[in-house]
Amino acid sequence: MCSLINLHMRTSKHRLPFEAVCMYWIKLKTNLSFRQIGTLFKIQTKEENIRKRVENIFHTVSRYLYDAIVPSHLGFHHLSRADALTHHTAYTETFFGHSLALIWDGTYIYCNKSEDHKFQKETYSGQKCRHLVKFMSIVFPDGYVFDLIGPFNGKENDAKISKAILEMNDDLSMIYEVGDTQIVDRGFRDVAGAFEELGFDIRMPSFLEKGAKQLETEQANETRMTTKTRWRISQDFLVNIDVLVRTLAASLNKCRPRLFHGKSPEDYALASKMLLMHNKTSHLQQVISQGDLSLRKNWKNLLHCDIHFDFPYLTLDFLREYTCGVYQIKQSSTYAKPHLYDHDGEFEYQLSSSDDTILRCRIHSKHSSTS
C-alpha cells in the first residue's frame, strides 16, 4: 500500500511514506487523537504543532489512497458482469441459478451530537435512539463490497434510501439484467415493489401473518434459504466520511481475502440438500394438522428415564448436517442458560402418550415470557 503513495508523497525528516500510511490506519482503527498518534510516532516538532502535523498527514494519505484504490476496487463501473458472477457462492448458485445476486443492507456510523440543531435532528435515528449517518452497502454473496453509497441522514430508513438509489442511479443497468436477484432484510418491505418494477427478483425473509405465532413450513424454508446467503467517530470527520468509508471498503476488496468462499463440495452438497427439502412437507406438521397430536394434553412427564431408554446418540457433525449449518447449534447454549439458573440445570421432558416416538422439552422462549 505504501507503493501507491510513494510517487505522490515525498520523504521528509518528519515522516516516511510508510509511517504516514501507518498513522492513517491507526487513526481509522483506534480513533486515537491526532496528538496521541503523534506522540506514538515521536513527531519532532513543537508540542502545539503535533496535532496539526498528524492531521495534515492523515488527510494527505486519505486523498492519495482514495485516488489510487477506489476507482478500480469499488463502484458500479469497476467490475464487468462476468467478473461479478465469479463472486457467487454454492448457495446463491444453487438457490437462485446463474443470475447475479446482490445483498443490500444499511451500515451505521455513530457520531456525536452537533451544535447545529437542524443537523442534530437529521442525524437522530429513532430506531437506534442515537445520532448516526448511514451508508447503503451493496455486497456480493462472498463478502466482496460492490459499492458503498452515502452518507445519508440517520432518520432515513433503509427502504427510503434504496428507493432513492434506484431512482437516481442508472449505473445498475450496466451490469444487471432482468431477473437478477436482490437479497434484502425485512426493513426493505416498502421498496420491494420498486425492485420488482425494474425486473429484479427480490428475496426477503417472510413476515408473520396477522394473528399467527409462527411461519408456515414453506415460508420458513424460504426464509432459511434467504438468510443462508446473507465504528463511534469524531464530529470533525463527518465532512470527509464518504471518502474514508469508501477508501476503507476498497482497501478491503484489494487486500483482504473473501469473507466467505462457499464453493467447496460440502457447500454445494448442503445447498442441494436445502433446495431438495424446500418443498418437503413436515411429518410432524401433518400429524398436528390432522388432529392426531395435541400440544396441550396427553403428554407424560419423564421424571426418571429408564437406563435403557432408547434415545439416539447425536454427534455434532450430525447436528450440523441436520440443521444445515451452525446457527441453531450456537443458539442452543443461550436457550439452555436460563434453565441453569432457574431450574437447577434441569429440563422438563415430556413424551406423547399417543406416539412414543415424539419427545418434547420445555424451554424458555427467546421472544416472549412463555415457554
Describe it:
It contains 15 helices and nine strands. The protein is elongated and about 85 Å long. It has three domains: 2-72; 79-272, no CATH class; 283-362, no CATH class. The longest helix has 24 residues, at 50-73. The model is unreliable at 230-235 (pLDDT under 50). Strands 1, 2, 3, 4, 5 and 6 form a six-stranded mixed β-sheet that branches. With 371 residues, the chain is α+β, with helices and mostly antiparallel strands. Helices cover 42% and strands 13% of the residues.
Task: Note the main sheet.
Answer: 6 strands, mixed
Strand content bin: 5-15%
State the end-to-end CA separation.
55 Å
Number of helices: 15
**N to C succession of SSEs:** HHHHHHEHEEEHEHEHHHHEHHEE
